[in-house]
Specification:
Layout: E1 29-33, H1 44-52, E2 56-58, H2 69-74, H3 84-96, E3 103-107, H4 109-119, E4 125-129, E5 139-141, H5 142-152, E6 161-162, H6 166-172, H7 179-189, E7 193-194, H8 196-199, E8 205-207
Parallel strand pairs: 1-2, 1-3, 3-4, 5-8
Antiparallel strand pairs: 6-7
Length: 214
């Protein structure tokens, strides 16, 4: 998710870069972790880049995610009710099967999972991209609360999986993109997501003077 003024990465192709592969341990595992309202396949261009650089990347979905966005959309009940501990335990099991501590890279709530996995000494290194705040951080931008309200506005959503509208997705994710590109990414990568990671967090206080997205 971007903030106004950020430079948006073209997600359709891996970034052009020159990498000295001799400095990369052969097959160093890298685990990519997506956040809410995205599918693991959104990491595909970055998986290609890391694979070309000599790493062994993988991007498992959250527990209950199917292999494709379409399958996940067809039965959102599979992801409903999954909380932060459930997701962290799921990735811990994935890491146990890798044979070596990986580099973990996560975005949004995936960034929060990265911090948890590092705290449990399950990763060699971690990168948290615009991570969700840890418990106890009460001040959030109004814009972040607006996106989060999709999960919070109905108490009955606590054990459900909900989706974003195209307009909500553009506000929270595609705000630095042309409208049509945001709409295309919405169709390609947006599944239902569990509300539990949101609803199990403490009530947050709006922070002033900031315009960041979720």
């Amino acid at each position: 998710m971007t903030q106004p003024g950020d430079t948006e990465v073209d997600t359709d192709s891996a970034p052009a870069t020159t990498v000295d592969t001799s400095a990369v341990p052969a097959g160093r595992p890298v685990v990519f972790i997506h956040g809410l309202w995205l599918h693991a396949t959104s990491w595909d261009p970055w998986m290609d880049l890391f694979r070309q650089a000599g790493y062994a990347p993988t991007a498992p979905g959250w527990p209950g995610d199917s292999d494709t966005v379409e399958e996940t959309r067809r039965d959102p009940s599979k992801v409903a009710g999954q909380g932060i501990d459930d997701v962290v335990d799921h990735y811990a099991q994935v890491i146990e099967g890798l044979g070596a501590k990986p580099i973990v890279i996560g975005h949004s709530f995936g960034g929060l999972m990265v911090q948890r996995l590092l705290g449990q000494d399950l990763a060699a290194a971690g990168i948290a991209i615009d991570p969700a705040p840890i418990k106890g951080v009460l001040a959030l931008p109004l814009s972040a609360l607006k996106v989060a309200s999709v999960a919070l506005r109905k108490p009955a959503n606590r054990r459900e999986a909900v989706s974003l509208t195209a307009e909500e997705f553009r506000y929270g994710f595609g705000n630095a993109l042309p409208a049509q590109e945001s709409a295309d990414l919405y169709e390609r990568w947006k599944p239902h997501s569990p509300t539990s990671p949101r609803t199990r967090r403490p009530r947050s206080t709006p922070a002033t003077g900031t315009a960041g997205r979720c």
